[in-house]
Amino acid sequence: MLILDSIDSLLEHIEVVQKDVTSLSSDSLLKISAYIEKHQLEVDDDIAAALQYQDIITQQLSATIEAIESMRKSINKFSHTFQSDEHLAQDGMQKLQEKLNTTLAEAKDKKNRFSGKTSCDEVSDEIEFF
Amino acid sequence: MPLVIFVDDSETALASTRMVTNSMPIEVKQYTEAQVALAEIKAGLTPDLIITDLNMPVMNGLEFLQALRDNPSTSRTPTLMLTTETKTELKQQGKALGLTGWIVKPFNPAQLKQAITRVLRLPV
Predict the structure, then answer these.
(1) pLDDT at A124
(2) With a cut of 70, which residues of chain A have pLDDT below it?
(3) What is the mean pLDDT of chain B?
(4) What is the pLDDT of residue B115?
(5) Alpha-carbon span B124 to B101, nearest angstrom
(6) How many folded domains does chain A comprise?
(7) Rounded distance, CA A17 to CA A57, Å?
(8) ipTM, 2 decimals?
């Protein structure tokens, strides 16, 4: 199906861009960190938080890359089924939709879980000791 | 000096902890893979405190913690989880494995230093 091929290509492009952004932001932050360490600059609370945002960005992007990979796999599986058997494809469409919905729900859950304190007002600065 | 091990698959996260702890009277070793840290511990490394991330490929923080508890030399070593995760179920799992505490990223430098000082009973 041409439309599915286009969607797959678009997802592939987004995945590549996200991987590049992750790599660039990590590289950028490591250079800044090296500069701070080399010049023994003091890291205050704001700078420490800013430095850690990169880790959160990476985790957020990794979760969406995972979701994209899962969606592409499902789309390719369906595409293959559609080409070989139209009846099976009807059933496959239903399964594809369910799979895409599940993938989206998992990705949204990970977005919340991997945000740390950046998107969760009720998480305080206090360290929880057990 | 007490030995503190940091485990995090993110090199940038390790750089942040390194910058914050470099003025403390502690020796720091950092690892990007929990299985490598575990291998060194099994080979004789004896940390006084372990601070680990949760979401890591190959061996995650809870699996690492379980392996530490199964290892005689680290079965009681204080261990803190430093993670973006805020899920209560995961905290409970950590607690059941004898985790010392849970720190949510981005951490506050003073709080992290305070936690290390408290666990290691360093002079204030």
Answers:
(1) 66
(2) 1-2, 119-125
(3) 95
(4) 94
(5) 20
(6) 1
(7) 14
(8) 0.72
pLDDT score, position A1: 64
Q: Is residue A12 part of a domain?
A: yes
Shortest Cα distance from B5 to chain A (angstroms)? 18
Whether the per-residue pLDDT at B100 is higher than 90: the answer is yes
Q: What is the DSSP letter of B28?
A: E
Instruction: Please report whether residue A65 resides in a domain.
Output: yes
- Interface with chain A: mutation pick from B6, B8, B18, B19, highest number of A CBs within 10 Å: B19
Where in the sequence is the domain holding A74, given as residue range(s)?
2-114
Residue A124 lies in a domain: no
CB proximity A117 to B under 8 Å: yes
DSSP characters over A58-100: HHHHHHHHHHHHHHHHHHHHHHHHHHH-HHHHHHHHHHHHHHH
A105 assigned to some structural domain:
yes
Cβ pair A33:B12 closer than 8 A: yes
Which helix (H) or strand (E) segment is B101 a member of? strand B101-104
